[in-house]
Design goal:
homodimer; 12 helices
Chain lengths: ~325, ~325
C-alpha cells in the first residue's frame, strides 16, 4: 500500500446539508483541502455557519491540532462544480433520490479526471444501481457515514458491481486516516450491514407496538438496559460466545417462526409521514417534544456518542482475536 | 401502593448456577433475607464460592452498605426445599427445560403458602405454559434478569394468562427496590421484548454471514460502532425521532421485502451445537479463544456493563418526556 498523506489530497463534497457539512468537517480535520459544493442555494447560505459550529464542537472535543481559522483557510464553499476539477476524491451527500443523484454525478464527472474516486453517501440505495449513471463506473463506490461524522468510528465502504478493487482499497486505507474503523463490503448489499440489522429490529419492534404487546417506551427501555449494556463492547456474535452459544440454536428454532415477516409498512409509520413528522427537528414524532427537550436530546446524543467511544476504546480485549 | 421494605421480606432462590447465584446476591444487597436452594448437588458445592466472589465484586463497585459477612449471615444455602416455607417470593432459576421446571415448581408449592409469589427466570419459555404446572397459578409470573443481575437495571416482568395483577404490580414495585428499571408485560409474549428484538437481529445477521455478504467481524463492528453509539442513551424509537423520522416509512418499504424470513436455524448454529460450543466457557465458539482471551472478555463485560450505566445515568434527558 502506498503511504497516504491526506494533506496532499484535495477532497470534494457535494451537498451541504447536515450530513454533507459534517463530512466537510471530518475531511478538514483529517488534513484535506476541501472543495465544498452546494447544489441548493439555501445550503450555500447556511453551510458556513454549520461548518463553523461543528469545528467549534471539534475544538471542544480536542480533535483539532490547529486553530479553526487554519481549517477554514483550506476550505472553499461554492455552487460551482468546476471547483472540483483537481479533487482526487469527491463525496456526494445529496438527498436519497436517484434522479437527483444522477444529475449530481454527471456534473461531477464533467469536471474531474477519470481516475478521481466518486463516492456516494447513501444508506439505502444500491451502489450498482447508482453506478449506472456514471461514464466511468469503475471509480464509483459507496461511503456510508454515521452522524456525527467527525466523531463516530463507523464507516461502511461498499462496492458496486463495476467498482475497481484498487479504488475500494485506497478508500479503505484513507478511511483509517480519517480515524474510522471501516468495514469494506465487496458485495453490493441493500441496506448494507448495520441498517439491515436495524431494519430487522424495527420491523419486529413496530410489530410488538402495533399489536399491543409492548409500548414504545418499553421497547426502548428493554433495548437500552439490555442490549445497551454490551453492544458497544462486543457486537452481537461475540455476545453469543459470552453467553455460552450452544443453546441459541434451539431457542431460535422456537422463536424464528413467530417473528414478524411483514413486507408492508405499519400504520404508525404511515401516520408519521402524514403529519410530516421530523422528530426533534420539528417537534413531531413518536414521542412528544417541546423545543427544550428536542435540543437536550440532540446535545445529549453528540456528547454521549463521544463519551461512549472514549469508554469503549479503553477496552482492548479483541485486538488479537480472529474469528473461525 | 403499600410501602415495600425489603428487610421484612424473605426471598427464596431455587437453582444456584451462574444466574441463580447472581440473583441471590442481588436480593441480599437489596436487603432481603435469602433462602437459597440447590437442586443439583454440584451447585451446592460451588455456589458459596460464587456468591462470595460476586459479593466482593459488589463491594468493589460500591454497592454494599455493610460488610460482606453481614449479607452472608442473612443467607442460607441448602438442598432442602422446606427452607422456603416462610418466603414471600421464590425465584426459580433452573435450566430452561419445562419438565425440570415442573418438578421444581411442585417442590416449591408443596412448602410455601398460597399467597407466596413464585417467579420463573426464563427468557424463552411462555409463562402461560409453565403456569399450567402450578396448583395456584394466580401467583405465578416471569421475572427475566440480565447478567450480571446485581448490576444491570434491566428486568422484564411477564404475566401469564392466569397471573393475578396484584402480584405483578407488587413485584413491579419490589423490582424498583432492587434498583431495576423494570418493564411489566401484561401479555404473555414469546421471547418477551428484548429477546424478540435481538432474535430478529440474529436472524438477519446470520443470514448475511451465511450468504457471504459480510463476515462475523464486520457485523459485530457495524453494530458496535453504529448502534452502539446511541443504543444505551435512547433505544430504537427515540433514535428515529432524532434522525427525523418521516423518511423511514419509504426506506422500510424498500428494505422489508428483502429481509430474511427464515424459520429454520442456520448451518453455522447447528455446527455450534455439534461441537458443543460454550463460547468463552469452553473456548469453543464463533470466535477463537485461549483461556486468557476468554477471561479478559468475561471481565471486560462486567466492568463495561457497570461503566456504561454510570455513563448513561448521568444523562437525564428523558425524565419528563411521554410518548404519544
Amino acid at each position: 500500500m502506498e503511504n497516504i498523506i491526506t494533506e496532499d489530497i484535495s477532497a470534494g463534497v457535494v451537498g451541504l446539508g447536515l450530513m454533507g457539512t459534517g463530512v466537510v468537517v471530518s475531511l478538514l480535520i483529517s488534513g484535506h483541502r476541501v472543495k465544498a459544493v452546494a447544489p441548493l442555494c439555501e445550503d450555500l447560505e447556511t453551510a458556513p455557519e454549520r461548518i463553523n459550529y461543528q469545528l467549534m464542537k471539534c475544538a471542544k472535543s480536542g480533535l483539532l491540532s490547529a486553530p479553526i481559522d487554519f481549517y477554514l483557510s483550506r476550505l472553499t464553499i461554492s455552487e460551482d462544480f468546476s471547483e472540483l476539477e483537481r479533487c482526487q476524491i469527491v463525496l456526494e451527500c445529496v438527498i436519497e433520490i436517484p434522479g437527483i443523484k444522477e444529475t449530481v454525478f454527471k456534473a461531477i464527472e464533467a469536471v474531474v479526471n477519470t481516475e478521481a474516486v466518486i463516492a456516494t453517501n447513501t444508506s439505502a440505495l444500491p451502489i450498482s444501481d447508482l453506478q449506472k449513471y456514471l461514464l466511468h463506473p469503475q471509480r464509483f463506490l459507496g461511503i456510508h457515514w454515521a452522524e456525527p461524522s467527525y466523531l463516530t468510528p463507523f464507516m461502511e465502504i461498499t462496492c458496486g458491481e463495476k467498482t475497481d478493487n484498487k479504488h475500494a482499497v485506497w478508500v479503505y486505507e484513507l478511511a483509517h486516516q480519517w480515524g474510522k474503523e471501516p468495514t469494506l463490503l465487496r458485495k453490493d448489499l441493500r441496506g448494507f450491514i448495520t441498517n439491515r440489522l436495524m431494519y430487522a429490529v424495527y420491523r419486529e419492534g413496530l410489530h410488538l407496538v402495533e399489536n399491543g404487546s409492548a409500548t414504545l417506551e418499553d421497547v426502548d427501555k428493554s433495548f437500552r438496559y439490555d442490549a445497551g449494556s454490551w453492544m458497544t463492547l462486543m457486537g452481537i456474535f461475540r455476545r453469543m460466545d459470552l453467553l455460552g452459544i450452544k443453546d441459541y440454536a434451539r431457542i431460535f428454532e422456537r422463536v424464528f417462526p413467530e417473528l414478524c415477516n411483514d413486507e408492508t409498512v405499519s400504520p404508525l409509520m404511515e401516520q408519521m409521514v402524514e403529519i410530516n413528522a421530523r422528530g426533534t427537528q420539528n417537534l413531531k414524532g413518536l414521542y412528544h417534544y417541546n423545543e427544550t427537550d428536542a435540543k437536550k436530546w440532540d446535545e445529549a446524543f453528540v456528547l454521549f456518542n463521544e463519551e461512549i467511544y472514549k469508554l469503549a476504546s479503553s477496552y482492548s480485549v479483541e485486538r488479537k482475536n480472529k474469528s473461525r
